[in-house]
Amino acid sequence: MNIGKFKFLAKSHLGLSVMDLYIAKELFLPFLFGMGMFTSLALSIGTLFDLVRKVTESGLLLSIAIQVLLLKLPEFVVLAFPMSMLLAALMAYSRLSSDSELIALRSIGVNIYRLLVPVVIFSFFVVLITFVVHNFVSPAANYQAELTLEKALDKIEPSFKERNIIYPEYKKVELADGTKETVLTRLFYAEEFDGQQMKGLSIVDRTQVGVNQIVTAQSATWNISENTWDFFNGTIYLIAKDGSYRNIVRFQHQQLALPRTPLDITKEGRDYGQMNILQAQEYLKLVKLRGDDKKVRKLEVRIQEKIAFPFVCLVFALIGAAIGTRPQTTSKATSFGICVGLIFAYYLLSFIISSMGVWGVLSPFLAAWLPNILGFLAAGLLINGSSR
To answer: Between 332-359 and 312-324, two packed helices, what is the crossing angle to 10 degrees?
Structure first.
């Protein structure tokens, strides 16, 4: 055992014992190895090959391809964190077990739960880093990568098309008995938004008591310079207080001072992976206004997953350490094979449970956290078995 030779940090540092620091050192190098290996593999499969194809077939500049590759890097670094944590815990504790160092420590009264303290602390640091990169760095970098790629390839057509845009506006009114009630003041509907203009618009205006006017138009665009809407080829039906038509105005071009929120709804065409957790929560409020229940459920699941995903690092660390502490000799190749099998099984289970959340079979919270809960239970059973 080499504990006595370990001088990486003084004993008093961080309140950790020499044993804790020794095990942390055993974790650190395999973790770095895993980060390099898993990030390279994921980046090659997920982006590199596609960029090479765009360079050779679409004429994408090599400098732009490198820029996009670097911007996509955080997305794959995030995926590598839990896998590297599993590999590090498995290799470190397997090495200690195969060299009988765990037996020596347990013979002097160190139980299995105390031996796992270093990997738990180590994994909590990784959880924190994963949360920051996953929720803030990666979404911004992904969005910038897509903009860079679209600009370089000179994509004229928008990458999205929204249909059935509905935006209701409400306000609080005070009733005769002093209570307040929420009433509809305006209803905005567009059949389609193609990235340039709204088409097939109908607007019901109830800003005064009753219906004041109904506006229909073939198309409309947002006028950035005047901060208003330009409507084209439409009709305005002015409604009297008794509900009869007061006047009908046909127009080819009419500017109306309406809020630009309906446009904001469609402009949030970012993929879930391009929104940080705060943007996703704001987008959820807008999507709820449209009454698209499936999209609301999907977004609620994705928001919960943004919180739950970093804790996969802790789950994998405990499972890897529990397997590694078993009295067996595990080579690096065997460790890598076990990692691949566990990672595949875990992500397959996560995908199935996440889909059940999107379908409405499970709540968004359960759909995001159930894989972690099952992982913690499995780790607990393995650790309990190793402690006997």
So the answer is: 140
CA distance 196 to 222: 9
pTM attached to this predicted model:
0.71
| Contacts (Cβ under 8 Å, ≥6 apart) of 255 | 223, 226, 228, 229, 230, 231
Q: At what angle do helices 332-359 and 293-308 cross, to 10 degrees?
A: 150
Please give the full DSSP string across 188-247, using - where no structure is assigned: EEEEEE-SS-EEEEEEEE-SSSS--EEEEEEEEEEETTTTEEEEEEEEEEEE-TTSSEEE
Contact at 8 Å (CB) between 220 and 201?
Answer: yes
Is 343:83 a contact under the CB 8 Å cutoff? yes
Instruction: Say which amino acid occupies 319.
Output: I
Helices (H), the chain: 18-43, 49-57, 62-98, 101-107, 112-115, 117-132, 138-152, 261-267, 277-290, 293-308, 312-324, 332-359, 364-387
d(C-alpha 50, C-alpha 36), whole Å? 20
The Cα 187–Cα 204 span in angstroms is: 5
Is residue 364 a contact partner of residue 304, using CB atoms and an 8 Å limit?
yes
The burial class, CB within 10 Å (0-12 / 13-18 / 19+), for 182 is exposed
Q: Can you give the pLDDT of all 388 residues of the chain as single tens digits?
A: 444 444 444 444 556 788 888 888 899 999 999 899 989 888 888 888 888 888 887 778 888 889 888 998 999 999 999 999 998 998 898 888 888 888 888 888 888 888 899 999 999 999 999 999 998 899 889 888 888 887 787 654 444 556 777 777 777 777 777 777 777 777 878 888 776 778 888 888 877 766 678 888 888 887 777 777 888 888 888 887 777 777 888 888 888 777 766 666 665 556 777 788 888 887 887 777 666 778 888 889 989 999 999 999 999 999 988 888 876 655 666 767 777 788 888 888 888 998 998 888 889 999 999 999 998 998 888 888 877 6
